[in-house]
Amino acid sequence: MKKQILSRKAEETLYIGKIIGSCLTAGDVVALIGELGAGKTSLTQGIARGLEISESYAITSPTFTLINEYPGRHVLYHFDVYRLQGSNDLEDMGYEEYFYGKGVSVIEWAEKIADIIPETAITIEITFLDENTRRIEISAPEKRLEEISSALSKGGF
Ligand SMILES: Nc1ncnc2c1ncn2[C@@H]1O[C@H](COP(=O)(O)OP(=O)(O)OP(=O)(O)O)[C@@H](O)[C@H]1O
Ligand SMILES: [Mg+2]
After folding, report:
1. How many domains does the chain fold into?
2. Which of 5, 92, 100, 150 has a CA-to-CA distance to 129 between 20 and 30 Å?
3. How far is 89 from 93, CA to CA, in rounded Å?
4. Digit-coded pLDDT (tens) for 24-35
5. Is the Cα torsion angle 104, 110, 92, 59 positive or negative in sign?
6. What is the CATH number of the domain that holds 47?
7. What is the mean pLDDT of the chain?
8. Where does the secretion signal sit in this chain (predicted)?
């Protein structure tokens, strides 16, 4: 099952992320897929707000560190695996403690490590339609998708 919505400006993607973030719970893994500049980091910034992470943290892609960690309703582990060749590098750093731990993991460029993304992950694909418009397609186990869809509907999506 999939839920597809449109974001017509960057602020909308933040808001969509916030709604999704408010639905997340301990141990969730969010796999983000989308081209350069699609809006993966923007969506993650919204997710951080939905996880009640303080606005004083600027959520930026952890390009050189691989992972950034922020305290919130659940700890957010923000991965950007753009520079990785594959999942081997993550295996070396013990990714299981993050993916199967009590925090929430959000992974930009998750398609690069598709082989180690848990089956229960929430996958969000962002497609660039034009300068300000993005298609956001969410797939998740049925019950989770229902929860997220219903929260998005309440928020006007
Ligand atoms: N509807 C929209 N949703 C998200 N971002 C948008 C939208 N419209 C315009 N933008 C712009 O697109 C850019 C998205 O950048 P962002 O860093 O979030 O992308 P990204 O997918 O993380 O890129 P990268 O692959 O470099 O990490 C921002 O400059 C943002 O302002
Ligand atoms: Mg990014």
Report:
1. 1
2. 150
3. 7
4. 999 999 999 999
5. negative
6. 3.40.50.300
7. 96
8. none
